[in-house]
Write a structure and sequence with these properties.
Radius of gyration: 17 Å
Largest sheet: 8 strands, mixed
Order of helices and strands: HEEEHEHEHEHHHHEHEHH
Helix content: 25-40%
Distance between the termini: 42 Å
Oligomer: single chain
Strand order of the largest sheet: 1-2-4-3-5-6-7-8
Number of helices: 11
């Protein structure tokens, strides 16, 4: 089975909605299940969660947008940062899930956006789960390992740069790069119209968590280049916002933990979103 066919098959099972803000949302699962919203990472799309959709939608509504300015969604208004993106999503939630309570998880840059969305709709967010989230003031050096690609004209050179960056940043080892991962990474990267790096390398999430009053948990890959050796600090930040915060560390996984160790991740997220509120 080709990667394109796999992507098409998963997408074909979704109910696609376009909001008044021209944000593209996809929904899988039962109408009667409790809603879970997943927010993807920077320069990504709904497909960051492609290996999690079937498991997580088995008994609940699973909603995944393309974040504004990424994937198929319209570009958000200035300043085109996490605050603007969260404001658009808050209006989308009012349109698609008016008044409904939901669980919320965000990966990488999506973790920052998720926390700001939770701040805008605190009565609706039951739990917040951060997945390899940026914005905690911990990301200082990963940019140095990435190869620039925008100026490359030769397709082979550009593909080589993408392959290097995917293996260096997203996965625990380049040996884990499969055709589907390469397809998704390159497809979404060239469509990105917002720059998430500034938000991810600063501290907006750390500051926002201090203002939230809801259960907050985390899932990280042990080999995540953006957090390696900093898990005690991450757990302390989470517990500072929510004293009972759990931090699940998934072994043998890098930054894109939900792709690299999908089955373990799916079980971890299901466990955290079933904890008593």
């Amino acid at each position: 089975m080709t990667p394109a066919l796999t992507l098409a098959q998963v997408e074909a099972r979704a109910l696609r909605s376009v909001t008044a803000a021209s944000t593209v949302w996809r929904r899988w699962g039962s109408d009667s299940g409790s809603p879970l919203i997943l927010l993807h990472g920077g320069a990504g799309s709904w497909a960051h969660w492609i290996r999690n959709i079937d498991a997580l939608s088995a008994d609940r509504q699973l909603w995944i947008p393309d974040l504004p300015g990424l994937g198929e969604s319209a570009t958000p208004p200035a300043p085109r940062d996490h605050t603007a993106v969260a404001a658009v999503l808050a209006r989308d939630v009012d349109e698609l899930l008016p008044g409904a309570a939901f669980d919320l998880a965000g990966f990488s840059y999506g973790g920052i956006v998720a926390a700001f969305l939770a701040g805008l709709r605190p009565q609706q967010v039951r739990r917040l789960v951060l997945v390899g989230a940026g914005g905690l003031g911990l990301r200082k050096g990963e940019a140095k390992i990435l190869k620039p690609w925008l100026s490359l004209k030769d397709p082979a050179e550009r593909e080589a740069a993408h392959r290097h960056n995917l293996g260096a940043l997203m996965l625990s080892t380049p040996d884990r790069i499969d055709p589907l991962a390469m397809q998704l990474y390159t497809r979404d990267l060239v469509r990105a119209r917002v720059n998430s790096a500034k938000s991810s390398r600063a501290e907006p999430l750390k500051q926002q968590l201090e203002s939230l009053r809801l259960p907050i948990h985390g899932i990280w890959g042990r080999l995540d280049i953006t957090a390696r050796g900093k898990f005690d600090e991450i757990h302390a930040i989470l517990r500072g916002a929510y004293p009972d915060a759990q931090l699940k560390i998934i072994e043998d996984a890098g930054h894109w933990v939900q792709y690299e160790q999908a089955a373990v991740f799916n079980a971890a997220l299901r466990d955290l979103t079933s904890l008593a509120v």
